[in-house]
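Lecture notes, unit on protein representations.

Consider one protein chain, 126 amino acids long.
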Amino acid sequence: MNKTITSLILGLGITWTAFAETGQPAAESPPASPAVPAAPETGKHHGIKLKQLSQELGLSEEQESKFKALFKKHKQKIKEIREEGQEEAKDTLTPAQKLKLYQLKEKNSEKLKALKQAVKQEENNP
């Protein structure tokens, strides 16, 4: 039981860190090609997904617009659910555990920043 709770909290901590840094979940997607750039309101992943759907299904501009709206709507719902879950998880922790979770988030944040910087440097120097 303790291992399950610890795993859940660590997973949430990593997710919090990644989401706080990027505004998106931790999974990184390859960059979208310049032909169909990601719409700012949908994010990188959704822009890539929309490009794939458009190419494979032959979507019209109107259909693409509807998909963008759907992606935006559901992104907001997911964000709200994630935030609610984070608050519920925090409420179950003792003050000492909350401090440790905060420290883990900071540590993961530093790792994520370093990783992003390395990726950026690699992209600039192929």
